[in-house]
Amino acid sequence: MTGPLFSATIRDAVPLGGRFLLSVVGAGTRPQLPCRLRIEGLPDELTLLDIVSSPTLWLLSEVTLVVEAQAQADWRGWAGRVVAEVGSG
Q: What tens digit of pLDDT does each residue of 4-27 get?
């Protein structure tokens, strides 16, 4: 396989304590939890902990991800960027 299993465009990011809620529109397969994610063009590495809303056709719909940053992250610049799976948790 040449590309990531999961990648999605971030529509919005909201801090929630030490975690973040990401509203995304995805493409690819549903990831196994937990898994590591990286935001394209940024050094931020995230751990995907949960998928809050997961409709049957979730790849065509907007879903909410619960993620945890591995270090201090500037979440304000995440909207519009692509987040992709880089490995399992």
A: 578 889 999 999 988 999 999 876
Burial of 81 (0-12, 13-18, 19+ CB in 10 A): middle
Mean pLDDT of the chain: 83
Residue 3, classified by CB atoms within 10 Å of its CB into exposed (0-12), middle (13-18) or buried (19+), is: exposed
**Cα angle: 1, vertex 22, 72; to 5 degrees:** 95
DSSP 15-56: EETTEEEEEEEEEEPPPPSSEEEEETTS--EEEEEEES---T
